[in-house]
Structure prediction request, 112 residues.
Amino acid sequence: MCDRGEDCAVAGGGVSGGAVQRCAVHRSSPLSDAEYVAFADVVLSRRNEVAFLRGCTRVDPKWIFEYARGTPLMTGETIVEDPPPSYSATRDAVIARVRARFGNYQWELPPA
Prediction:
């Protein structure tokens, strides 16, 4: 997952063997404003300054919590204190926002 051209870990054996690489969704893509994306391929620019992501799809961070929770990819789950946890009578459960990290490179996810 890369966030708008920031340095980010490109998983797999493509760019730099999985090292941290500057990457972005091309500005002409309809997904260029996406906060989180999953991608199938990495293509280096001619000057090797930026790795462009190809085969992208927009990812809602809530999906990561929903589908990765309980797997080795989701780590460091901590309860966010603001807003404080509260009891929900309709669910008969304490509801709290959680912050976690995802993947081999420990990308920090927004609280969910």
